[in-house]
Design a protein that fits this description.
The structure is a single chain. This protein has helices at residues 3-6, 15-43, 47-74. 81% of the residues lie in helices and 0% in strands. The two termini are 30 Å apart. It has 75 residues and is an all-alpha fold. Helix 2 (15-43) runs antiparallel to helix 3 (47-74). The protein is elongated.
Length: 75
Protein backbone atom coordinates (compact mmCIF):
# COMPACT_ATOMS: atom_id res chain seq x y z
CA UNK A 1 0.00 0.00 0.00
CA UNK A 2 1.35 3.39 -0.92
CA UNK A 3 2.01 5.87 1.87
CA UNK A 4 -0.55 8.23 0.36
CA UNK A 5 -3.20 5.55 0.89
CA UNK A 6 -1.94 4.42 4.29
CA UNK A 7 -2.45 7.76 6.04
CA UNK A 8 -6.17 8.18 5.26
CA UNK A 9 -6.73 4.48 5.95
CA UNK A 10 -5.49 5.04 9.51
CA UNK A 11 -2.48 2.76 9.12
CA UNK A 12 0.12 5.36 10.03
CA UNK A 13 0.54 5.85 13.74
CA UNK A 14 2.84 7.81 16.02
CA UNK A 15 6.24 6.45 16.99
CA UNK A 16 5.00 5.82 20.53
CA UNK A 17 1.98 3.90 19.27
CA UNK A 18 4.14 1.88 16.90
CA UNK A 19 6.59 1.03 19.66
CA UNK A 20 3.79 -0.02 22.03
CA UNK A 21 2.32 -2.26 19.35
CA UNK A 22 5.73 -3.75 18.58
CA UNK A 23 6.40 -4.42 22.28
CA UNK A 24 3.08 -6.23 22.62
CA UNK A 25 3.74 -8.29 19.50
CA UNK A 26 7.27 -9.25 20.50
CA UNK A 27 6.11 -10.21 23.99
CA UNK A 28 3.35 -12.42 22.58
CA UNK A 29 5.75 -14.11 20.18
CA UNK A 30 8.33 -14.69 22.94
CA UNK A 31 5.88 -15.99 25.55
CA UNK A 32 3.13 -17.69 23.54
CA UNK A 33 3.78 -18.24 19.85
CA UNK A 34 7.30 -19.66 19.80
CA UNK A 35 6.98 -21.63 23.05
CA UNK A 36 3.91 -23.26 21.49
CA UNK A 37 5.93 -24.16 18.41
CA UNK A 38 8.66 -25.55 20.67
CA UNK A 39 6.13 -27.73 22.46
CA UNK A 40 4.83 -29.05 19.15
CA UNK A 41 8.36 -29.83 17.99
CA UNK A 42 9.16 -31.53 21.29
CA UNK A 43 6.02 -33.63 21.01
CA UNK A 44 7.33 -35.15 17.78
CA UNK A 45 10.91 -35.40 19.01
CA UNK A 46 12.40 -32.72 16.75
CA UNK A 47 15.11 -31.38 19.04
CA UNK A 48 16.66 -29.24 16.30
CA UNK A 49 13.38 -27.40 15.79
CA UNK A 50 12.94 -27.05 19.56
CA UNK A 51 16.33 -25.34 19.86
CA UNK A 52 15.64 -23.13 16.86
CA UNK A 53 12.26 -21.85 18.04
CA UNK A 54 13.51 -21.37 21.61
CA UNK A 55 16.37 -19.28 20.25
CA UNK A 56 13.88 -17.35 18.14
CA UNK A 57 11.71 -16.73 21.20
CA UNK A 58 14.76 -15.34 23.01
CA UNK A 59 15.45 -13.07 20.03
CA UNK A 60 11.88 -11.79 20.14
CA UNK A 61 12.22 -11.08 23.87
CA UNK A 62 15.37 -9.06 23.17
CA UNK A 63 13.54 -7.13 20.47
CA UNK A 64 10.77 -6.33 22.93
CA UNK A 65 13.32 -5.10 25.44
CA UNK A 66 14.99 -2.89 22.83
CA UNK A 67 11.63 -1.45 21.77
CA UNK A 68 10.75 -0.79 25.41
CA UNK A 69 14.03 1.03 25.93
CA UNK A 70 13.32 3.14 22.85
CA UNK A 71 9.84 3.93 24.15
CA UNK A 72 11.25 4.87 27.55
CA UNK A 73 13.54 7.38 25.85
CA UNK A 74 10.53 8.99 24.11
CA UNK A 75 8.81 9.81 27.41
Amino acid sequence: MAAAEAVPAGLVRSTKENLRKAITGEHDEATNLYPGFAAQAAAVGDTTAVRFVRDTAADEARHGTAFQQALDRWR
